[in-house]
Design brief:
alpha/beta; Rossmann fold; 7-stranded parallel beta sheet; 3-stranded mixed beta sheet; binds nicotinamide-adenine-dinucleotide; binds 2'deoxy-thymidine-5'-diphospho-alpha-D-glucose
Length: about 350
């Protein structure tokens, strides 16, 4: 049985991961530490909140005393670290919180793990032999922007270009330094763009689904030809589970969907699927008519693509859900969970949880 600290488990990927872990690893215990920022929503885990294997702690990863108490009180032997400020556009308008959470928060977790696993109770005992592991969940954006060809490999030099990706790159370097300097048993994953259920509707796919359902305009930045490599969120969860169980300590694993698309293709796919599933707009117009080209994102990375050879050949992981199947599932989920989108977009979910847990 593992005692796993999952940070940021009320967000998009973390909540899908917790549900996946409880199904796949029934003996493990999970502590979810989440600050409940605008992106954290305990409703994402309403179906597991009473599970005796699951404990939610509302708190900030930057709070060193709290994190230390969780390590000792819950005898944590595994960390899967998702908590972060994750949205590139927000990092452009307000970078400070990205520096605080993504860099200082990661540093704090590393220090707590070092203290708990390497200094006490038995100095000199190899933490990885005791089964301790710290998985740091990161992004392909640390590698920068690609031209027309090529793909990011684990050896690609870092070249982050937004405050978000610079803060993630910084956290990756700290994690790696704790391996080389102290022997902390860390693993790093760098993943491409995720999509699926419970994604906050500020990111491209849920934003476009939500706006298209309401007949609102669909903002496409620049010429719409920027390319992202899309991965269904449960495939990402299984990749992280694989790295956790089979990955080599100190290594980095790139994770990708092998599914490169231009943004405009993604937006058109959503429009066509919604027209098919719900009928066209009033007046018989296609949803594609809502597409509006808007001012480009500052420093907009042109293309990301992942070479996932290492995780495939060393650990046997490959994505299971094609882009077409994943988009169907995602759109069906948003159509069946309109109350979730409504509460997230009108902010009522915050009022409810602030009454329960206090303001963040
Ligand atoms: P998200 O924004 O949906 O969720 C982030 C979660 O972290 C929220 O629940 C939030 O409340 C919590 N959080 C934020 N600051 C905190 C703090 N100081 N203390 C405790 N909790 C805090 O993010 P996501 O899209 O689920 O991404 C999760 C992780 O995966 C991030 O580290 C991100 O960099 C990485 N990642 C995301 C993608 C993607 O496509 N979304 C791809 C690759 C990697
Ligand atoms: O590559 C992994 C990264 O993917 C993660 O590390 C980040 O946490 C995650 O947010 C995501 O970053 P992106 O910036 O690629 O995702 P976003 O959904 O914001 O944008 C996807 C693409 O769509 C990007 O090229 C910008 C464009 N876009 C986005 C929005 C919100 C638009 O054209 N219009 C929009 O309204």
């Amino acid at each position: 049985m593992k005692r796993i600290l999952i940070t940021g488990g009320c967000g998009f990927i973390g909540s899908n991961f917790i549900r996946h872990m409880l199904k796949q690893n029934p003996d493990d215990r999970i502590v979810n530490l989440d600050k409940l920022t605008y992106a954290g929503n305990p409703a994402n885990l309403a179906d597991v909140e009473k599970d005796p294997r699951y404990l939610f702690v509302k708190g900030d990863i930057v709070d060193a005393d709290l994190v230390k108490d969780i390590f000792s009180g819950q005898q944590i032997d595994t960390v899967v670290h998702f908590a972060a400020e994750s949205h590139v556009d927000r990092s452009i308008t307000g970078p400070a919180e990205f520096i605080r959470t993504n860099i200082l928060g990661t540093f704090n977790l590393l220090e707590a793990a070092r203290e708990a696993w390497l200094k006490t109770p038995a100095p000199g005992v190899d933490a990885s032999e005791k089964g301790c592991r710290f998985v740091h969940v990161s992004t392909d954006e640390v590698y920068g922007s690609l031209g027309e060809t090529g793909a990011f490999q684990e050896t690609t030099p870092y070249d982050p270009r937004s405050p978000y990706s610079a803060s993630k790159a910084s956290s990756d370097h700290l994690v790696s330094a704790y391996f080389h300097t102290y022997g902390l048993p860390v693993l790093i994953t760098n993943c491409s763009n995720n999509y699926g259920p419970y994604q906050f509707p500020e990111k491209l796919i849920p934003l476009v689904i939500n706006n298209a359902l309401q007949g609102k305009s669909l903002p496409v930045y620049g010429d719409g030809k920027n390319v992202r490599d899309w991965l269904y969120v449960i495939d990402h969860g299984e990749a992280i589970r694989t790295v956790l169980h089979k990955g080599r300590v100190g290594e980095t694993y790139n994770i990708g969907g092998n599914s490169e698309k231009q943004n405009i293709e993604v937006v058109q796919t959503i429009c066509d699927l919604l027209d098919e599933k719900t009928g066209k707009l009033p007046g018989g117009k296609d949803r594609r008519s809502l597409i509006t080209y808007v001012k480009d994102r500052a420093g907009h990375d042109r293309r990301y693509a992942i070479d996932a050879t290492k995780i495939r050949t060393e650990l046997g992981w490959t994505p299971q859900v094609t882009f077409a199947a994943g988009m169907e599932k995602t759109i069906d989920w948003y159509l069946s969970n309109k109350a979730w989108i409504a509460s997230v977009t009108d902010g009522t979910y915050r009022e409810y949880y602030e009454k329960m847990y206090g303001k963040s």
